Structure formats: structure tokens, C-alpha cells
């Protein structure tokens, strides 16, 4: 009895969707992950980019805001990821919350956040983080750690009583066209429900493809 009950609790069916659009559904899962003590950094997400010739690269960044417009993160505008995003403004994000056996996959197009928003966020960070962002030419080779320490020391004294100007560092927003919710199951028949923006000619049939809210459709994928 107990095993069967636990099994049902883990299932993620279409009836279990809190929302018929993915941003509201993301909020429910993200809040659960944030409130789960064994999830250390619920906002850590793997960001995949690709160069113009299609060579992929991936790294973790932190989600710093989300809503119907998209998913935001901040980084150095001269980093490898930034260079790839400038020449190929498409990205994929993946969250994995192990304790909940859940993953969310987001795909979309990328744009820079307005400079004013990057300024505001940059200056809201602790001074040490602002100095850290200025001290590092992210993704470039250096001879040793002492290069960073020296730069940090110099900047700390230079800006001890002044506002630190934002370096070539700021935000991006991933504007999603596809968001998949994956719920792992002990029997390996995992649940996958993907929301996506439909093609112009596509009509939901209520069987394979379902009509969602706010222009989204959703479908169940084989695990
Ligand atoms: C959990 C975690 C969170 C991170 N968050 C960020 C972030 O928000 N922004 C960032 O630029 N780098 C972040 N990093 C560092 C990146 O993973 C990466 O080392 C750096 O951005 C350089 O990537 P690139 O050379 O591909 O541009 C984070 C690393 C980890 C492990």
C-alpha cells in the first residue's frame, strides 16, 4: 500500500500541471526547489551556447530573475559565452534539482538586458563582488592567481570612496520558445511534459498536442 501511494505521489501527469503555461509551472517547481533544504543552489542552471559554426559549449550560471519575458543571468560581455551569444543568439538552459528528481529544460533566443537594468543589478551587489567582476577578464588566460589578487587590491584602494563603474559586464535574457518539465520516476518511466510555441499552421488535436494558455501548446514526450 505504502509503495503504491509513494509511486502515485511521484507521478507528474497532465492533471498535475499547476498552470497551462510554462512560466507559472516553472514558478511552482522553482519555489519548491528553493524551499527544499537539500537543494543548495536552486537557481544554478547549465547554460549551453554554440559558436557560429555550431561548436557547443556549456557552463553553469545563476538565474537572477524570470517572468513571461524570459530568464535572466549576468556575466562578462567579453567572456566566451558572450562572444558565442553575440554571433549566435540562441541558448539552452537546464536546471537539475536532484533531491526532487526534477529537471527543467529551456530553449530560446537571447538578448542583452537594457544597460540601466545591468547598472542597477551591478550596483546592488556587495562591493567585493563588484570588484571581483572588474578584476577578472573572464575566459582569458593568466599567469597565476596573484594577477587577480593584485588587480583586486588595486581596485579596492582606487574605489575605496567612489562608486565602481560597471565594467563590460551585464545581463542577458533567454526568451523561451520551449520549456520542458521532467519528473524522474523510480521505474524509469519518467514524465516529460514540454510546452512550446506552435508553428503557425499547427492546431492542437487534444490527443498528442494540447492547447495551453498565453499562446503555448504542450505535449507529453517519451522518456
Ligand atoms: C553554480 C555556479 C554558478 C555560476 N554562476 C555564474 C554566473 O552567474 N555568471 C557567470 O559569469 N559565471 C558564473 N559561474 C562561472 C561559469 O560557470 C564560468 O566558469 C564562467 O562564466 C566562464 O564561462 P565561459 O568561459 O564559458 O564564458 C558559475 C559557476 C557555477 C559552478
UniProtKB/TrEMBL annotation:
One function term, GO molecular function aspect: pyridoxamine phosphate oxidase activity
Domain Pyridoxine 5'-phosphate oxidase dimerisation C-terminal span(s) in chain numbering: 169-223
One record GO biological process: pyridoxine biosynthetic process
UniProt key word Oxidoreductase: yes
Needed co-factor(s): FMN
EC number: 1.4.3.5
Record keywords: Flavoprotein, FMN, Oxidoreductase, Pyridoxine biosynthesis
Listed pathway(s): Cofactor metabolism; pyridoxal 5'-phosphate salvage; pyridoxal 5'-phosphate from pyridoxine 5'-phosphate: step 1/1; Cofactor metabolism; pyridoxal 5'-phosphate salvage; pyridoxal 5'-phosphate from pyridoxamine 5'-phosphate: step 1/1
Pfam families: PNP_phzG_C, PNPOx_N
Coiled-coil region(s): none
Family: Belongs to the pyridoxamine 5'-phosphate oxidase family.
Task performed by this protein: Catalyzes the oxidation of either pyridoxine 5'-phosphate (PNP) or pyridoxamine 5'-phosphate (PMP) into pyridoxal 5'-phosphate (PLP).
HAMAP family assigned: PdxH
Oligomer and partners: Homodimer.
Protein name per its UniProtKB record: pyridoxal 5'-phosphate synthase
Organism expressing this protein natively: Frankliniella fusca
